[in-house]
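forwarding from the other thread:

> can someone predict this with magnesium ion?

sure thing
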Amino acid sequence: VAGAPDRPNEFEIIARYFDRGAGAADVVVGIGDDAAVIDVREPLVVATDTLVAGVHFPDDFAADALGYRALAVNLSDLAAMGARPRWCTLALTVPAADAGWLAEFAGGLFRLADELSVTLIGGDLTRGPLTVTIQILGTVAADRLLTRGGGRPGDDVYVTGTLGDAAAGLPVSRDAEDVLGRRFAYPTPRVAAGLALGGLASAAIDVSDGLVADLGHVCEQSGCAAEIDVERLPLSEALLARFDADAAYAAALAGGDDYELCFAAPPGAAAAVAAAARASATPMTRIGSLVAGTGVRCRLRGRRYLPPATGYRHF
Ligand code: ADP
Ligand code: MG
């Protein structure tokens, strides 16, 4: 049974917006059967992240940005593992079959998927409150895998890009002209950086909940502590133009949603890290060190600095 042109039914939606025919050679069975089949020859890396309207993005968030962002946050998890993303599935729950909205959503999703050669191999479609779940699958050679657990006291701590922009941009995330708003709506997953750091970084995580909170996970799993030199934090001109230094530091330390990588590497690897930054065209800034102990401490010009309340928690 066909739906009205602007109100497609379930199968029309899949065919029109999500099924783009035969995909990559490693997809044995793609969209259209009871399950997808992929041919994997290396260690498989799997992650999933859900975005819920009103929780992870404002209710009036643009559909194009939602499609892009839902994939970007998943790609970020693979980047933090040093993996190459290859396939994804999409479980989409929408309140209505709005053709214009679906076209925009698919546009944002596939723009990023195509840029990184990720194939959509299946999914699910249901009616209900707007929710997007993507599962991402990728591969990594065992000796290039990055985890949270390999850091050692004495390692340098780095971050990619700039921090604090997305938290500052959330209130203006509908404004496509606003640099900070765009940093929330269209985060850059650091896939190239993650690949370049394989075999080099001792530990890595992506910054989704805030730097102090996420670096804290690295410390826990690496069995050590971290010291951040707050004045080293990479802050964008856009952030500093809108906030004074204290508010900018707060956004950089505790604001979530940046999807930059935070990683550790032995001091002897500094030149190799600089080469990885050049090779991946990704700024990498040293912000502190791992030390013996537990927890994350901050210093501002050598003096203890108390960071603002920690990262976002659902529960
Ligand atoms: P089943 O009833 O066997 O679970 P569905 O009718 O839900 O199958 O889905 C039919 C096909 O379309 C499957 O291959 C499924 O993976 C794919 N699919 C469903 N929803 C989506 C989506 N949002 N994006 C991509 N593929 C989808
Ligand atoms: Mg079935």
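Residues 81 and 146 are 4 Å apart (CA to CA). thats all i got for now
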